[in-house]
Structures are given as structure tokens and as C-alpha cells.
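Quick one:
INPUT:
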């Protein structure tokens, strides 16, 4: 019998392929233009332990008494040692508070620059210039006045003219995280405050990672998020202003009128070597490399993760002359807009490095266990 020919070709329809539309490339890497200059994490030498202080919560915050005057740290013989330790302490505790300070605006600028420099600020980075806030612009990097008036006019992060959430938590953010090279540290001194209200809260984004399963955390390490503040164009227009297209805002990469940037969702802090969630709710944060539906789910999860875990947060009640200095790479913060009276003060903020995720980065809790330390 003749063999059956098996060469007949069948016409098979290819399986229908669905291509999911994803926004952004989650694997893009930084250009490396603005890298932190530290060779490795810094050790806290303990030079500030002699001043009266307490840890505000186990997770976040240290408060110093008025025997520590920030103005004196600048004048001390071992000024660099003290201020380097201050930078390390702030990065480890997230935020430090100082009562009854006599530090002037100029001294705030000097101190802020020195903290950033000793913590490895890239040579191209300088003081932060906000694209919209009052008292900035072409006048250069002066201290920035914060006031309740700006928020009431709708010029601030609460976006009172926009159709956005009216919940108080919507303002949680990391300073200028919409910049390609955002802030490393910020300092705020409140001079005038209402009899009650206007507290500020911070969230420790290192400790938030302990609330995530290891497998979920591994997935988050592959993602990036869009930090977007292009709503400031409308806010500026409401006040007869425009966002400058040419002014350099603290780093040559921070120029132009596109106020948005993609950053790793898990960010390594070069000062501590610890990883933190870097998710700035106040600036939108479209998660990249996932579908819109997945983005919504993740955004809701990350928001609840930050806002519901109050064991990772601290709330500070200001007095006239109080100063707070915090690390923007590993904390979120928000003022509480629950007052009608005047609240004003001075702010100094510096631009740090381009955010990155390092596979060498450690989880804070594991690092502390290995070091045998509480914080
Ligand atoms: Fe802020």
C-alpha cells in the first residue's frame, strides 16, 4: 500500500493575540547625570547624643530641646562632623524636630546646603527652586515663604480649583518629586502659627515596606511611577503667573515646563543604604508598565498602605521658632489645613540625586537587626 502523504499543509488561523496597552517603560534606567557622590552608606558617629532629645515614635522622628541651636552647629570647630551626623540622623529617623531655634533665613540656607553636600549631593545640584511657589522665580534660591494664603487661593497642592479629592490626605507628598532630580532634604521653620491647628505629619516610607509581602515587594522593585505636577500650570495661570521654560530649578535636568518625571517605585537612600516606597500621592503617580486598571488598583493599595499604617507616622505640633528637617527620599509629609488664621514661616530645600533603585539596598528592619540597633 502506498504511504499516506503527510505533507499536506493545513491552513491554520493564528491564535488571536491581544496586545495590552501599557503606559511607560518600567525598565528604563536613569541616565546617571545626577548621581549621589557617596561611596557607601554613612555611619552615625553619635556627636549629637549629648543634646537633650527623645525619639518621638519607635518608627519615625527625633525631637531635640533648645539646648541644640542649629545656628551653633554652623559655627562649631567640628561643624562638618556635627552636620554630617545630623544628615545621617535625619535620614535614619526620617525627620528631626528642633524647638525654640534662633536660626536666621541665611543660616537656614547655609545649613541646608551643607547637610546636602555632606550627604553626597551631586555637583550639579543646588538649592531647590519651586516652579510656582511665591517668593521664588527669578530672584533665585532664597528661602521660601510658606503661607496659608497660597493654599486658600488654590495655589498649593490641595488644588482647590480642581476636581480632585477633598480629603485631607490628598496632600501627602515628597517635595518636588515631579522633578527629574527631586529634593533630598527640606527644612521648615514656622514663625507665625494659629492658636490651634496647622500641624504637619510625616510617614516613614522605609517601615511601610514591612507591611508588604516579600513577593509583592519584589514585584514593586520592577516598577516605576509617574510623578506629575502639570496641574501647577493652571494654578499659576489662576494667579496671573506662568511656569518659566528656561529657569533651571536646582539641577540642569530640572528645566522646561513639563513638570513630570518617572521614578522607581522602590527607591534606595544612599545615606542609609535602605529602600523605601517612593510614591508621592499629591503628585498623581501613574504607575508605569501596567494597564490603567492595574494602576488604579495599585494606586488605591499604595495609598491605603501609607495612610492606614499610622504606626509609621508622626504628627508634629509647631511652636513659634520650631524647625523640622526631613529626608524626602524616604518620607511623605503633609500640612493639616484646618485653620483660618495666619501660618507662615521659612523653608529651605535642596535638590539631591536622580532617584534610583539599587539591588544592594536593604530593608530598614533587616539592616537594624543586623546592626543590633533600634533605629
Ligand atoms: Fe512639602
Amino acid at each position: 500500500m502506498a504511504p499516506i502523504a503527510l505533507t499536506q499543509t493545513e491552513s491554520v488561523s493564528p491564535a488571536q493575540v491581544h496586545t495590552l496597552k501599557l503606559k511607560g517603560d518600567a525598565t528604563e534606567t536613569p541616565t546617571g547625570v545626577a548621581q549621589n557622590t557617596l561611596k557607601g552608606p554613612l555611619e552615625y558617629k553619635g556627636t549629637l547624643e549629648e543634646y537633650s532629645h527623645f525619639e518621638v515614635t519607635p518608627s519615625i522622628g527625633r525631637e531635640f530641646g533648645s539646648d541644640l541651636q542649629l545656628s551653633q552647629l554652623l559655627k562649631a570647630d567640628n561643624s562638618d562632623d556635627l552636620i554630617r551626623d545630623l544628615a545621617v540622623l535625619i535620614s535614619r529617623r526620617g525627620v528631626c524636630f528642633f524647638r525654640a531655634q534662633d536660626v536666621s533665613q541665611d543660616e537656614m540656607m547655609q545649613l541646608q546646603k551643607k547637610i546636602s553636600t555632606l550627604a553626597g549631593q551631586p555637583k550639579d545640584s543646588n538649592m531647590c527652586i519651586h516652579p510656582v511657589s511665591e517668593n521664588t522665580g527669578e530672584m533665585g534660591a532664597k528661602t521660601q515663604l510658606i503661607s496659608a494664603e497660597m493654599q486658600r487661593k488654590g495655589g498649593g497642592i490641595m488644588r482647590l480649583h480642581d476636581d480632585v479629592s477633598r480629603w485631607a490626605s490628598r496632600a501627602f507628598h515628597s517635595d518636588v518629586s515631579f522633578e527629574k532630580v527631586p529634593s533630598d532634604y527640606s527644612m521648615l521653620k514656622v514663625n507665625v502659627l494659629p492658636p490651634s491647628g496647622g500641624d504637619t505629619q510625616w510617614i516613614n516610607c522605609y517601615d511601610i515596606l514591612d507591611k508588604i509581602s516579600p513577593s509583592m515587594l519584589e514585584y514593586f522593585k520592577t516598577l516605576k511611577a509617574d510623578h506629575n505636577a502639570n496641574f501647577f500650570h493652571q494654578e499659576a495661570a489662576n494667579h496671573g503667573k506662568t511656569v518659566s521654560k528656561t529657569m533651571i530649578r536646582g539641577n540642569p535636568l530640572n528645566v522646561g515646563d513639563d513638570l513630570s518625571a518617572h521614578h522607581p517605585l522602590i527607591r534606595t537612600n544612599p545615606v542609609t543604604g535602605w529602600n523605601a516606597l517612593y510614591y508621592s500621592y499629591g503628585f498623581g503617580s501613574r504607575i508605569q508598565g501596567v494597564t490603567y486598571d492595574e494602576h488604579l488598583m495599585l494606586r488605591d493599595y499604595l495609598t491605603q498602605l501609607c495612610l492606614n499604617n499610622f504606626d509609621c507616622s508622626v504628627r508634629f505640633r509647631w511652636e513659634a521658632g520650631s524647625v523640622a528637617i526631613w529626608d524626602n527620599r524616604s518620607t511623605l509629609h503633609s500640612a493639616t489645613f484646618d485653620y483660618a488664621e495666619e501660618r507662615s514661616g521659612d523653608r529651605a530645600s535642596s535638590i539631591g540625586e536622580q532617584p534610583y533603585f539599587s539591588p544592594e539596598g536593604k530593608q530598614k528592619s533587616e539592616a537594624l537587626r543586623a546592626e543590633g540597633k533600634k533605629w
